Each structure stands twice: as C-alpha cells, then as structure tokens.
Amino acid sequence: MNKIFTTLLMALGLVAVSCAQPRQKMENKAKQDKNIVVAYFSATGNTAAVAKTLAAVTGGTLYEITPQQKYTDKDLDWNDSTSRSSVEMHDQKARPKLKADDADIADCSIVFLGYPIWWDEAPRVVNSFIESHDLKGKTIIPFATSGGSSIVNSVRVLKKTYPSLRWQEGRLLNHESDDYIKDWAESAIGE
C-alpha cells in the first residue's frame, strides 16, 4: 500500500512540475511579446525610483526622458513665477528640447509613461517626448509622482491633447511597495 501511495505522489509531482514549466514559459513569452518600454521624466529622482521598479517588475526597457538643459532647483521653484518650470507650465505650447533622443520604441506595444505632476499636469518635456515619437497603435499607461496633486487632471489633459493615442487610466505611485507596483502593472497590461 505504501509503495502505491509513494508511486502516486511521485507521479503527481512530475505532472505538477511539467505543467508549471510551460506556464512559466508562457508568462515569460507574454511579457516578451508585449515589448514594454518604461519612459519617464524625473527632475528630483522620485519618478525615476518608481520607473526603475516598474521596469524591473515588468521586464520593460527603461528610458529616461532627458531635457537638453537639466532643471536646477531654481528652475523648479514653483513659488517664483519667473522660474523656468513656471514659465513652461504657463505656456501650453512650450516644448523643451530633448537631449539626444535614442529611445527605441518602434517595436514596443506598451509604453508606461512616467512624470512628476507640475501645476496639476505633466511637465511640458513629456509633450516633447510624445511629439517626437510615433506612439499610434501603442498602449500608453501613465504613472506619476506628486507632492499633493492626483494624476487625474494630467491624464485628462494628455488625452485631450493627443486624442488619437490609445490611453489607459493612470496611477499615482507615491511611496508604493514593489509588490503594489507589480500588481498594478500586471493588471494594467492585462496579465
């Protein structure tokens, strides 16, 4: 009786292992087929930290949106109406120049687009990135960090500005755990 029970347990174990391997291969293939890019702009490092976590948990390619002229603390002083960021955000048509743009997004199907919230919107350098790439047909999933604003208005403005793009609802990711970011990302890409 013990031999039969042991043999049965061994057989079930082999079946479980053989079923798990194709499933894992399918999950890896699903991630590869999606060709994910995590493009982000970060002036102070908060959004960069989230983007790095997001790229790690999705297997996506990390790409930093880098302005030609880096933002200084003085540029970011939102209390100063003459600061660079204030001037840009008050001009709907401002498009800061990007540093050499080598983002390889032609073959990706999903772009996680990250940014800090400035004046309840995405910084204008994000517009520069969007307008310098062909994003039609790609799923764009915004994420943001903020000291006090939600992501809602920034996504609304992006959708209104670029209505032909395929937008998903975004998520504010302030101080979230890696597991939280992973769960959100998987639900956002439909895994």
Tell me, what's the shape?
globular
Q: Runs with pLDDT <50, length 5+?
A: 5-32
Number of helices, counting only DSSP H or I runs of 4 residues or more: 6
Mean pLDDT: 85
**Biggest beta sheet summary:** 6 strands, parallel
Describe the model.
The chain is an alpha/beta fold. It is built from six helices and six strands; from the N terminus they run H-E-H-E-H-E-H-E-H-E-E-H. Strand 3 (110-116), helix 4 (124-131) and strand 4 form a beta-alpha-beta unit. The protein is globular. The model is unreliable at 5-32 (pLDDT under 50).
Which features characterize this protein?
alpha/beta, 191 residues, single chain, 6-stranded parallel beta sheet
What's the arrangement of secondary structure elements?
Blueprint: H1 2-34, E1 36-40, H2 46-58, E2 61-64, H3 84-89, E3 110-116, H4 124-131, E4 139-145, H5 152-161, E5 166-167, E6 171-172, H6 178-189
Parallel strand pairs: 1-2, 1-3, 3-4, 4-5, 4-6
Helix pairs in contact: 2-6
